[in-house]
Specification:
Blueprint: H1 4-27, H2 36-48, H3 53-59, H4 64-76, E1 80-85, E2 88-96, H5 98-122, H6 125-142
Antiparallel strand pairs: 1-2
Keywords: DNA-binding
Domain HTH marR-type: 7-140
GO molecular function: DNA binding; DNA-binding transcription factor activity
Length: 144
């Protein structure tokens, strides 16, 4: 059984590795396009479906004013659609548009292509297999 210190060291290593990889993947690929916050909102809408702005702000832990700016930019670029809530005409429902889905997928493909090339350049096949296993384990921990 691992000691508390060993688990703390492992936790720190995993956090730092995930953080650095996340930072690097955000900086790779095409420039321009949606901001990281806009991408987070698009991802949320894609994964969880239609939201009210209030529910979206709560789920992304955003101030309503910040979300208002994000939604305005996404709407301007045709990446979301807004429609009245059929159950409450005072509310608006927000969903990702077809263009938003294409934009989100293009962003993902660019990052996945960079990551694939970086893994081929940096890791042996055995290390690539280990990284695949580690990724599955991290998803299992995240979903627990």
């Amino acid at each position: 059984m691992r000691s508390e210190q060993d688990l703390a060291d492992l936790s720190r290593l995993v956090r730092e590795g995930v953080g650095r990889l996340n930072w690097r993947m955000r900086t790779e690929g095409g420039r321009g396009g949606p901001s990281p916050l806009e991408l987070a909102v698009l991802r949320r809408l894609h994964r969880a479906g239609t939201h009210t702005p209030k529910a979206l702000a709560e789920s992304e832990r955003l101030h309503p004013q910040s979300l208002t700016r994000v939604l305005a930019a996404l709407d301007r670029d045709g990446l979301i659609t807004r429609r009245p809530d059929p159950d409450d005409g005072r509310r608006v429902l927000v969903e990702i548009s077809a263009q938003g889905l294409r934009t989100l997928r293009a962003y993902s493909v660019e990052r996945e292509q960079w990551l694939a090339a970086a893994m081929v350049e940096t890791l042996s096949e055995t290390e690539q297999d280990l990284l695949g296993l580690a990724a599955k384990l991290m998803m299992r921990v995240a979903d627990s």
